[in-house]
Specification:
By secondary structure, the protein is an alpha/beta fold. Helix 6 links the parallel strand 13 and strand 14. The longest helix has 13 residues. It is globular and about 60 Å long.
Length: about 325
């Protein structure tokens, strides 16, 4: 099979044998995959990554030795693969298993390949109502919706999402049903327009103009969601949060962070990390049309044109770039 291999800032296409599913695993043929900012960070040296990336994908089960009835089923995957025996795994919380592997990120090859093996317990059938390109969004949408599982968001709360990148847009679109007044703050008018077209309130804050735009909102929000992916994003989110309010952190950066936490202490602000979420909830949200992810797709490339696709995904301001594996 063909696969993309990242190592030390390079991406090369390699030919490898098809992987063999181990006990409890299924072999999945990839149909479509999305390029995520995490993939770009891994390419740039995050985690010292070397291997096959890709964790946003939809595929079809090609082989399932333990349950042949699953063969042919279209699926997406929870990317966290736990040991199955620790207290977190036994509580159904694989994402915090100390020995976990993470598809395309840590210890397990990803979906920028024609085939990959996935624990069957991690697979979720895709509703027929969703096409492949929509289903690819299940993983990042699950991460966005996780905030609503961690924090009670009232319909009258003041909520801001900082950052109009791919994840910020999904946070705004996904959480708006819980809070119709949610405000998306971003640097890109075209991206903000995509959210506004689906009813999201937006605020344009150009790069370098934060001091002119944000001070009037200081201390206003019950909940500020940091989705900028920039080192200064957390400090901005804290400044916008009221005393005893909450900041939810959705993005990480390989760049160093210097932060004055005095306001967090004095104003008793809650900081909550938020990572992966419920894939079944994301699939249900997509299938029932509670948001439309199709406008977030910038381009679709055949897998054979990965270099072009990855260059497009790395361009400043890029939306979602998808890889099409055919059939």
């Amino acid at each position: 099979m063909r696969a993309i291999y990242f190592s030390q800032g390079t991406a090369v296409t390699v030919d490898q044998p098809n992987p063999e599913p181990g006990p409890g695993e299924a072999l999945v043929r990839v149909l479509s995959a999305g390029v995520c900012n995490t993939d770009i960070e891994l390419f740039n040296g995050y985690y010292g990554f070397a291997g096959v990336p890709g964790h946003e994908f939809v595929g079809r089960i090609a082989r399932s030795p333990d349950d042949p009835a699953l063969e042919g089923v279209r699926v997406v995957a929870d990317i966290n693969c736990g040991c199955g025996a620790c207290r977190f795994c036994l509580a159904g919380n694989r994402r915090h298993c100390a020995a976990r592997q993470v598809i395309g990120i840590k210890g397990r090859p990803g979906a920028f390949a024609e085939y990959l093996c996935v624990p069957a317990a991690n697979l979720h059938p895709v509703p027929d109502a969703l096409d492949d390109r929509e289903a690819v969004f299940a993983e990042p949408l699950a991460a966005a919706l996780e905030i609503g599982q961690q924090i009670h968001i009232g319909s009258n709360d003041t909520v801001a999402v900082l950052g109009d990148g791919k994840l910020g847009l999904l946070c705004a679109l996904g959480l708006r049903p819980l809070n119709p007044g949610l405000l998306l703050i971003g640097r890109h008018e075209a991206k903000l327009a995509l959210a506004a077209a689906q009813g999201v309130r937006t605020l344009y804050c150009p790069a370098g103009k934060e001091d002119a735009v944000l001070p009037r909102l200081r201390g206003f929000f019950d909940l500020a969601i940091e989705a900028t992916g920039r080192p200064e994003g957390l400090a901005q989110a804290i400044e916008l949060t009221r005393p005893e309010g909450t900041v939810a952190l959705k993005t990480t950066s390989r760049l160093p962070l210097t932060l004055n936490l005095a306001k967090v202490v004095v104003d008793e602000i809650n900081l909550i990390g938020s990572r992966c979420g419920d894939m079944a909830l994301a699939l249900d949200t997509l299938a029932n049309g509670r948001l439309d992810v199709r406008p977030l797709i910038q381009a679709v490339y055949p897998f054979s044109e990965f270099a072009r696709a990855f260059a497009a995904a790395r361009a400043p301001g890029a939306l979602k770039v998808l890889l099409d594996f055919g059939g």
